[in-house]
Amino acid sequence: MMPRKKHELSAAEWELMQVIWDREAAVSVREVLETAYPNDEKAYTTVQTLMNILVDKGFLRRKKSGMVNLYSAAVKREKVLDAGIAQAAERMFSGSVGAMASFLVNSRKLSDDDVAELRKLLDEKERGES
After folding, report:
1. CA pair distance 35, 75, nearest whole angstrom
2. How far apart, in Å, do the first and last CA atoms of the chain sit?
3. What is the per-residue burial (b if ≥16 Cβ within 10 Å, else e) of 7-29?
4. Which stretches of the chain are DSSP H helices?
5. Could you give the CA distance from residue 8 to residue 28 in angstroms, rounded to a whole number?
6. Which is higher by pLDDT, 126 or 109?
7. b or e along 77-96 (b: 16 or more beta carbons within 10 Å of the residue's beta carbon)?
8. What are 20-43's pLDDT values in tens digits?
9. May I ask the CATH class of domain 1-92?
10. Distance CA 22, CA 95 (A)
């Protein structure tokens, strides 16, 4: 197995980042644990370790508030999503986002609502609205 690059997120790291991006204020490990894993699917120490790894990778900021560390996002969700899409396109579609989009459209996994939303986005893009 290839080592994960510093700028990539594992599935568990994505779960934690989603919780943190959805919050407006800095959060504690306990708050993230209770939101991401309300049924105790992961241990406190596991979440704490993952959050500290995310600090080391540059995805989170950590500041001390009394006895508790508070964490906040150091990068915007959109930037991470953009990088992830670019990496997927590079690995699977020779760098072509268009080829990746074509595959997704033709895979028949899109609902009618998905198609309508894509059509709307493409129309807006064509008119220069986005």
Report:
1. 20
2. 40
3. eebeeebebbbebbeeeeebbeb
4. 11-22, 29-36, 44-57, 77-92, 97-106, 112-127
5. 23
6. 126
7. eeebeeeeeeeebeeeeeee
8. 999 989 999 999 999 999 998 999
9. mainly alpha
10. 30
